Amino acid sequence: MSVVAATGVDNEYLAFTLGEEEYGIAILKVQEIRGYETVTRIANAPDFIKGVVNLRGIIVPIIDMRIKLNLGTPTYDQFTVVIILNLRGREVGMVVDSVSDVISLSPEQVRPAPEMGTAMNTDHLIGLGTLDQRMVILVDIDKLMSSTEMGLIEKIHA
């Protein structure tokens, strides 16, 4: 039995909010959580890439998830945080409205993402997690940061 299976870490998600919705990403992708700070803009970068920050000598691109997911105009306040992720060996920052907690979900608590037809791309959704009265949208962060966008991130690092 692997260490992950024995500890159940693979079923743990960091829950965060964007607008009125609660989302979750695999805790194993999360490196750290930081307060939102001013970023250095990159010319000609897409709107959702807010810019970059210097994190202990590493230049980290910062992506605003409200803009990325078309969830209205982002606001930045004392609750706004940046989740530093490790994706494919690269550090990427993800701006979210707030972080709530770490949740553990059993396979029975995860429902498949509903089919939305062509109206919405749901490839990046793992499913919907239910915990008591909460419903958490589980996101496959690797798929969300698609290879095209990771290519943009690569250009910033270059």
Q: In words, what does this structure look like?
A:
The chain has 158 residues and is α+β, with helices and mostly antiparallel strands. It has a single domain (3-157), classed as CheA-289, Domain 4 (OB fold (Dihydrolipoamide Acetyltransferase, E2P), Beta Barrel). It is 15% helix and 44% strand. The chain is built from four helices and eleven strands; from the N terminus they run H-E-E-E-E-E-H-E-E-E-E-E-E-H-H. It has helices spanning 3-7, 65-68, 141-144, 147-157, and strands at 12-18, 21-26, 30-35, 49-55, 58-64, 81-87, 90-96, 98-104, 110-111, 125-131, 134-139. The strands form two sheets. It has a six-stranded mixed beta sheet with strand order 8-1-2-11-10-9. A five-stranded mixed beta sheet has the order 3-6-7-5-4. Strand 6 (81-87) and strand 7 (90-96) form a beta hairpin. The radius of gyration is 16 Å and the shape is globular.
What are the salient characteristics of this protein?
158 residues; alpha+beta; OB fold (Dihydrolipoamide Acetyltransferase, E2P); six-stranded mixed sheet; five-stranded mixed sheet; 4 helices; disordered N terminus
Uncertain residue ranges: 1-7
Number of domains: 1
The third-level CATH topology is: OB fold (Dihydrolipoamide Acetyltransferase, E2P)
Number of strands: 11
Protein name: Chemotaxis protein CheW
Pfam families: CheW (PF01584)
Subcellular location: Cytoplasm
Domain CheW-like: 10-150
